[in-house]
Amino acid sequence: MGEAVRVLRRWQHDGAPVPLHPGDLGWHWRFGAEETARAVRTWSRDGTILAVGLVDSPGLVRIGFAPDAGRDEELARQMADDLTRPERGVLPPGSVGVESRSDGVFRELLLASGWDLDEPWTPLRRDLTEPVADCGVRVETIGPEQVHVRVAVQRAAFDGSTFTDERWHAMATGPAYADARCLVAYDDHGVAVAAATVWSAGPGRPGLLEPMGVHRDHRGHGYGTAITVAAAATLRGMGSSSAIVCTPSANVGAVATYRSAGFYQLPDVLDLRRNA
Q1: Which Gene3D superfamilies match (predicted)?
Q2: Domains parsed from the chain with CATH numbers
Q3: 3-state DSSP of 56-125
């Protein structure tokens, strides 16, 4: 698992479509190390990892490639075969999805074999070469003593959230969290109103914002924009070259929030789906 996180760090570079990020594994780590290990797949040649997959739900795998592996036909055919055959243990039978945002042989093979284009996602990026202005609200970095505050905002921001204090502590034990920060924004009365987690991939590489949410009782006051600006500033302070995020294109409110926080909207990317 540590090696999967390390290679994903090395693969991050500006100009790539928002790919699988070490922060994605880090956020999944809230379910514990064993569950995260069961969710990760790697494809290697001669001891070198060329692709990493995260089974984010039973019917969805998210895939990232080494920068020079996108045109590797042998690798692409092996991966396509692994994903198509349930006995290989990547995806189950029936309707399943693949998130692979890099153009290349792998996507071409899946489309040629009957997979369809699926839900569009909107990637956004903010350059961090210039200083980030103050976000205008009080924002604190959350440590173990304030976990309950971070958890409460998360659960109030996302319907059906299963985040708990225990899951935060599990997440914080993972190798990716060494380069992460949890942030909480407060209103003028000291009430926690928004939260975000940011994940660095190391100096000079893009950092990920995942997740970001505003308490359902405090929406419409600009707190989403404020916490997003604070997240960008935090990543810049950690040496990130840019801040990246990807959200469903149908979530027009989220897209507008990121844009208002100085993020540039990139062309939509589409998942792939194999229907039952």
Answers
A1: 3.40.630.30
A2: 2-120 (3.40.630), 126-268 (3.40.630.30)
A3: EECCEEEEEECCCCCCCHHHHHHHHHHHHCHHHCCCCCCCEEEECCCCCHHHHHHHHCCCEEEEEEEEEE
